[in-house]
């Protein structure tokens, strides 16, 4: 009877009665557990994975060309780049790494000395110096500067978006490098670092003119001091773009790009995908809006201030400010033109690039793997974790892994033979710049088969080799006046001697390297041509027999 009476009640009532029997503390524990699971996934934490591996971290991945001298002579000696990166145990999240560095990280005291640099368009750039001898000495009034004959290496630092010399990661880098014996100079973007805008020009992700001006100034003022450069975030995009534009015609002897956005168009799509990324986008957009409004009276070209006051993301700022000041048709056009991924292939000086695969601001999808692998001057180092400009390590999180990596890389580079070669190359380029073939009115074929360009002046070569004179008929060239237009006959018999020059040159090089190669080449030639020669001889023999038989008849 009890069973029948019990079964007559509604099952929902039974469940409700059972729920009231569970203590409230158990509900709180369950809610806390679900909250932890949600935050663990939302913050993209990897504490459990690190716990199972004993917090050993994961090895750094290096991407480079097999013929890369930078790796052979410098990076191969860097233990940090060949080691592992292990995050701070309580910061096992790319978001925690990024946020903690900006908001809660204890930064070293940097006593900067400021130097003001004026540009040709009336702009003002603040250069904040931290000399190796003044790391622990309070700054003095004014700027006594670095002696012009000082040979201490100089490191130029280009900060990221809305960052200046007072940013936490910039201070970590400047203090570490100055303590290691380098002179550090931070080039603040226009309107940042406490300096007002003095011209109708604001900085952007592709503005390399200020970097070019600063580098030229430093090289002129301190010609005996090797000049290095470090770019962070947007500053890395500016640095790589500048190096790609200049090629070998730069005073920089070595550079490092940290957490570069690489492709701004893909990065714009990425930063709007998830809620966490949209938070970064909004924070940076508000910072840019404040930057524009702060210099409203100096920017007469900006008229739509109602739209500027409503900026809430990076794309809005680029649409209403960057595109207006720099005459870009659309925001996507601006992103395509200034992305440094299109310039990394043209870099002609040693460049180390460091990126984190879990960067919440700059997606791993933007990394130009193939371009970095194809360029013999570039080494790409990627870590599985680290966040954006984070890489906090150790139990207390006081150390930045990428700062130690930069310090070790520059020290190894400065003591390598590659450093001496870069000095010689820079001196040669500055003394006698070469003209490209495309810029010359006509060309000349040399005896060794190379094609050289002729302009208004005969261009020299690094090896002090003399060019063949124009009036040599053997090379198939004709001497002409520099200002006359070269005309070619539509039907012209090719010069056989000139055409055979490259073939003879290759054969001479091959015979000079190894006699065995010549014997192998001869065997291959005989083997491949024997069927043809045999058939020709057989046909000739049959023809002779046929003619003799017909004569007898």
UniProtKB/TrEMBL annotation:
Every Serine aminopeptidase S33 domain range: 154-366
SUPFAM superfamilies: alpha/beta-Hydrolases (SSF53474)
Pfam families reported in the protein's UniProt record: Hydrolase_4 (PF12146)
Transmembrane segments annotated in the record for this chain: 12-40, 516-538
Keywords: Membrane, Transmembrane, Transmembrane helix
Record-stated family: Belongs to the AB hydrolase superfamily. AB hydrolase 4 family.
Record protein name field: Serine aminopeptidase S33 domain-containing protein
Species name: Solanum tuberosum
């Amino acid at each position: 009877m009890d069973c029948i009476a019990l079964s007559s009640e509604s099952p929902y009532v039974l469940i409700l009665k059972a729920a009231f029997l569970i203590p409230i503390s158990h509900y709180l524990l369950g809610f806390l557990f679900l909250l932890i699971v949600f935050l663990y996934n939302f913050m993209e934490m990897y504490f459990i994975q690190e716990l199972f591996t004993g917090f050993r971290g994961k090895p750094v991945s290096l991407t480079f060309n097999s013929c890369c001298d930078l790796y052979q002579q410098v990076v191969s000696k860097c233990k940090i780049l060949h080691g592992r990166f292990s995050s701070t145990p309580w910061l096992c999240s790319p978001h925690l790494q990024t946020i903690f560095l900006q908001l809660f990280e204890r930064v070293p005291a940097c006593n900067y000395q400021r130097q003001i640099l004026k540009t040709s368009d009336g702009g003002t750039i603040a250069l904040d110096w931290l000399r190796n001898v003044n790391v622990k000495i309070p700054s003095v009034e004014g700027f006594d500067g670095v002696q012009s004959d000082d040979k201490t290496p100089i490191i130029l630092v280009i900060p990221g978006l809305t960052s200046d010399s007072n940013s936490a990661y910039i201070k970590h880098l400047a203090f570490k490098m100055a303590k290691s014996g380098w002179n550090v100079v931070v080039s603040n973007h226009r309107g940042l670092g406490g300096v007002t805008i003095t011209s109708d020009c604001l900085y952007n992700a592709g503005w390399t003119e200020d970097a070019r001006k600063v580098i030229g100034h430093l090289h002129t003022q301190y010609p005996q001091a090797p000049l290095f450069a470090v770019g962070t975030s947007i500053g890395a995009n500016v640095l790589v773009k500048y190096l790609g534009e200049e090629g070998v015609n730069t005073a920089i002897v070595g550079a490092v790009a940290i957490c570069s956005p690489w492709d701004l168009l893909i990065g714009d799509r990425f930063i709007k995908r998830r809620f966490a990324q949209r938070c970064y986008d909004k924070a940076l957009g508000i910072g840019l809006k404040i930057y524009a409004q702060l210099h409203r009276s100096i920017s007469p070209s900006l008229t739509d201030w109602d739209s500027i006051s409503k900026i809430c993301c990076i794309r809005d700022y680029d649409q209403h400010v960057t595109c207006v000041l720099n005459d870009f048709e659309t925001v996507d056009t601006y992103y395509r033109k200034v992305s440094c991924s299109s310039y990394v292939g043209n870099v002609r000086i040693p460049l180390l690039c460091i990126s984190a695969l879990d960067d919440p601001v700059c997606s791993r999808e933007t990394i130009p793997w193939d371009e970095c692998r194809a360029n013999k001057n570039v080494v790409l180092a990627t870590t599985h974790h680290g966040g954006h400009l984070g890489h906090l390590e150790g139990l207390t999180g006081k150390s930045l892994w990428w700062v130690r990596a930069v310090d070790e890389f520059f020290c190894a580079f400065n003591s390598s033979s590659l450093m001496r070669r870069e000095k010689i190359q820079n001196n040669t380029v500055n003394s006698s710049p070469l003209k490209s073939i495309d810029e010359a009115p006509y060309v000349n074929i040399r005896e060794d088969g190379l094609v050289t360009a002729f302009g208004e002046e005969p261009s020299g070569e690094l090896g002090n080799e003399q060019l063949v004179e124009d009036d040599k008929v053997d090379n198939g060239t004709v001497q002409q006046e520099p200002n006359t237009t070269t005309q070619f006959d539509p039907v012209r018999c090719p010069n056989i001697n000139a055409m055979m020059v490259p073939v003879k040159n290759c054969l001479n090089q091959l015979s000079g390297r190894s006699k065995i190669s010549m014997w192998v080449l001869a065997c291959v030639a005989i083997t491949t041509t024997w069927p043809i020669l045999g058939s020709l001889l057989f046909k000739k023999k049959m023809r002779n027999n046929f003619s003799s038989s017909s004569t007898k008849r």
